[in-house]
Amino acid sequence: MKFKIMVLPGDGVGSEVVAEGVKALNAVGKKYGHSFDYTYGLVGGAAIDVQGTALAPETLALCKKSEGVLFGAVGGPKWDDPKAQVRPEDGILALRKGLGLFANLRPVKLYPMLIDSSPIKPDIVRGTDFIFIRELTGGLYFGKPKKQWQTARGERAVDTMAYSEKEITRIVHVGFELARSRRKKLVSVDKANVLQTSRLWRQVATGLAKEYPDVELEHMLVDSCSMRLIQQPTYFDIVVTENTFGDILTDEASMLAGSMGMMPSASLAAIPKEGEKSFGLYEPIHGSAPKRAGQNLVNPIATILSAAMLLRYSLALPKEAQAVEAAVEAVLKDGYRTYDIMGDDTKKVGTREMGDLVAGKIG
Ligand code: IPM
Ligand code: MG
């Protein structure tokens, strides 16, 4: 079969890791008789430099014509001026909003051979395997007003945290559905002791629980959750939360998987039923790491595993997705590591070599 994929490498290490994701897809194509038709576009700082905006309307239109988007990372010191009118990050935010990608899935899985890469004690982190569901198109990121202005007593700034019942309902549904396919335990994270949006969140989640009598729902405060993640990571199976909490907690959770370089993500407009496809954008959760760019250094596995999620959710190719995941595991078992996950008796490789090794195992 032939599939149309949009590729947006972005800034910093984005192009290096995305190249390895494409390599993995090509290896899948060769092995299983698929062909991937790639269209490349600019996003973030790269787009600002050439097109004057972090996401040109043409690029968004091309994404809509594709079956899925493989995304690298955006940002860098060159575009960091706080007074700048356009920011690289606007590119990814416009994509999420413009494509209606409200459900962000971030699996946190510790590969057993990386147990010593996690800063958490082995006895605590062993067996960590859960999925974080982050609401992606609401909350502080998009609420209005959002502005900074001059007052008689100095400058002021405001961001707005807003959520509607509809927005909460659709994301918490995703949580319940995924929980049903796993250990039937859903943790909903909020700050209901302080925030009104969180009280609405809790009310909606409690209401939905009646539709899922087979799933156990637990409400957890975000501060307590941040502690529990480190204290007992195996406690979690499916976690659902709003945009900002999800942003922060998933960086924390990446340390359970050994490295940010191991954490893929899928941003979806709907969760596909088995055998069906749903449009999505796939990106590593790490950033553009400008200091490490251009050195063939960083770990491409997060992007390769994101490509696997693309195969699973947007192309309905679960067998092929599994082949990619198994290849990653096999390469790690063989002892190959990028700098971020080095351990005793491991062999250090660069970005390209890691990508070649994984592609080799797929084929
Ligand atoms: C992420 C990133 C983004 C976010 C940035 C780059 C805007 O941190 O995907 O977690 O805050 O959502
Ligand atoms: Mg983040």
Secondary structure blueprint with pairings:
Layout (H helix, E strand, L loop, with lengths): L1 E9 L3 H19 L2 E6 L4 H7 L5 H9 L2 E6 L14 H11 L4 E7 L12 H4 L3 E7 L7 E9 L2 E7 L4 H16 L4 E6 L5 H14 L6 E6 H10 L6 E4 L1 H12 L11 E3 L11 E3 L18 H14 L3 H16 L2 E2 L9 E2 L2 H12 L1
Parallel strand pairs: 1-2, 1-3, 3-12, 5-10, 8-9, 8-10, 13-14
Antiparallel strand pairs: 4-5, 4-11, 6-7, 11-12
Helix pairs in contact: 1-10, 1-12, 6-7, 8-9, 10-11, 11-12
The structure holds 3-isopropylmalic acid and magnesium ion (MG).
Task: Characterise this structure.
There is one protein chain. The chain is α/β, with parallel strands linked by helices and 363 residues long. The chain has 2 domains: 1-114 and 259-363, Isopropylmalate Dehydrogenase (3-Layer(aba) Sandwich); 119-256, Isopropylmalate Dehydrogenase (3-Layer(aba) Sandwich), CATH 3.40.718. It is 40% helix and 21% strand. It has 12 helices and 14 strands. The strands form 3 sheets. The chain has a 10-stranded mixed β-sheet with strand order 2-1-3-12-11-4-5-10-8-9, sandwiched between helices. Strand 1 (2-10), helix 1 and strand 2 (35-40) form a beta-alpha-beta unit. Helix 1 packs parallel to helix 12 (351-362). It is globular, with a radius of gyration of 20 Å. The model has no long low-confidence stretch (mean pLDDT 97). Bound molecules: 3-isopropylmalic acid and magnesium ion. Residues 89, 92, 247, 285, 287 line the site of 3-isopropylmalic acid.
